């Protein structure tokens, strides 16, 4: 899952990047409205964490523009404006959630998981494919109720695929979800990790769709 | 006072002449009935005269009525200044005094409301930074990451401490306080002290300083608020020092024309785009490119101080040094030559 953070305060932005990287999300961070626009145009994101008071304008403009373009990208507003009218304005502009600074990193992580769940049209917190269950909150994977230990990238790839079992993701799409701008990628990494997943979960856990990409069975 | 004295004199004169008239009638032994009627009439006239004299004239009573009504409107927030035209001239001074007091109050209230809402917003941001960095330090096992988090926390705490200091300075900048705390100050000396306190930074960065204080300003005291003007000089000079590159130039001038004291500071730094001039003096507004660092209160404090001293900050491009020019014209009372 790839997240864009729009936050002009350096210390908070840096903290958000570090905190979300711990959850193995691919994270990009921009500090202005202008660079957020560019990032949203060029990169497919799964979630947007948005600050309102930006140096070149209001974060709400970004949100309004997104919704006008009929994007259903989950948006979580993160702001120091704590008065109710501000919250109402943000939610009415199309935000999915609202968190007030200062906030608890764990609460933010939980809200991100909830948004992710809803974006995939699901209510239950765990993802399932065949006998494999992935729990994003505890970072755990079980197969036939037995815990399986996965590496961080293996976990992230499995999560990307299992969010919508049956959906095919290309190698490039998986890479987009795994690596932020500042992270180095090697051309065969995805294959290496898929190989690792199959070794641990069985050959049929991840299906290769020739010339298209990968999927997990429904 | 004077008017009242003459009324008493008139009253005394009337009483005396009536008494003399009554006595002379008694001497001429008029009939007891005529005498009684006359004495009663005289007493009645005296009583009526006395009552009328104690009563306020109608126009004054009216004026007080109108004033009271206006003040009640103020109380309910419908009004924010008095209409002085409805007052009779006897009440003008009183109404003016009330009016200027009300102006002081509404200045204080606006200032306080804006301040507290912005201050809470501004303080939440560094707190959020400190909290998230602390949570990461708690969670990570990497000692390098932990150290980075801790130094970020310390930096943010220092930044918030400066912010709190500036918030306090800003909150004290009310008209009432300023007027009450005015005293006689040698403003040239205040400026010299500020320059002296920054001498190390100025010399380290090889910034040459051209200082111009006219002869009168250099030798006289002015009734003003020394502490405020020290803050004003200090903030503007620090800004200039921060934005002027190594080997740059800063020029300062302090001149007095009549009761107007002009303080001009120019630098050879990169300046500010013209569209930002209005914005940067508003509390907590950062410049578009985020180039202006700090609490976002420095220039706002200067502008507020200037306005409390009858002026305001005027930003422009410096013709001579190509950087920023900030000028402010303040009203001062010249005390001694």
Describe the fold and architecture.
The complex is a heterodimer of chains A (218) and B (337). Chain A is of the alpha/beta class. The radius of gyration of chain A is 18 Å and the shape is globular. In chain A, 40% of the residues lie in helices and 22% in strands. In chain A, strands 2-1-3-6-7 form a 5-stranded parallel β-sheet, with helices on both faces. Chain A has a 4-stranded antiparallel β-sheet with strand order 8-9-10-11, with helices on one face. In chain A, strand 6 (75-79), helix 4 (84-92) and strand 7 (97-100) form a beta-alpha-beta unit. In chain A, helix 6 (152-162) crosses helix 8. Chain A contains 8 helices and 13 strands. Chain B has 337 residues and is of the alpha+beta class. Helix content of chain B is 60%, strand content 14%. Chain B has helices spanning 2-27, 32-54, 58-75, 92-139, 143-171, 175-180, 187-197, 199-204, 215-219, 226-243, 298-308, and strands at residues 183-185, 208-213, 221-224, 249-257, 260-267, 313-317, 324-331, 333-336. Chain B is elongated, with a radius of gyration of 34 Å. Chain B starts with a helix and ends with a strand. Chain A binds chain B through residues 8-9, 11-12, 14-16, 18-19, 22, 31-32, 53, 55-56, 80-83, 100-106, and chain B through 117, 120-122, 124-133, 135-136, 139-140, 145, 149, 152, 155-156, 286-290.
Topology:
The complex is a heterodimer of chains A (218) and B (337).
Chain A: E1 2-6, H1 10-21, E2 26-30, H2 33-42, E3 47-51, E4 53-54, E5 57-58, H3 59-68, E6 75-79, H4 84-92, E7 97-100, H5 105-119, E8 127-129, E9 132-135, E10 140-143, E11 146-148, H6 152-162, H7 171-178, H8 189-201, E12 207-209, E13 213-215
Parallel strand pairs in A: 1-2, 1-3, 3-6, 6-7
Antiparallel strand pairs in A: 4-5, 8-9, 9-10, 10-11, 12-13
Helix pairs in contact in A: 6-8
Chain B: H1 2-27, H2 32-54, H3 58-75, H4 92-139, H5 143-171, H6 175-180, E1 183-185, H7 187-197, H8 199-204, E2 208-213, H9 215-219, E3 221-224, H10 226-243, E4 249-257, E5 260-267, H11 298-308, E6 313-317, E7 324-331, E8 333-336
Parallel strand pairs in B: 2-4
Antiparallel strand pairs in B: 1-3, 3-8, 4-5, 5-7, 6-7
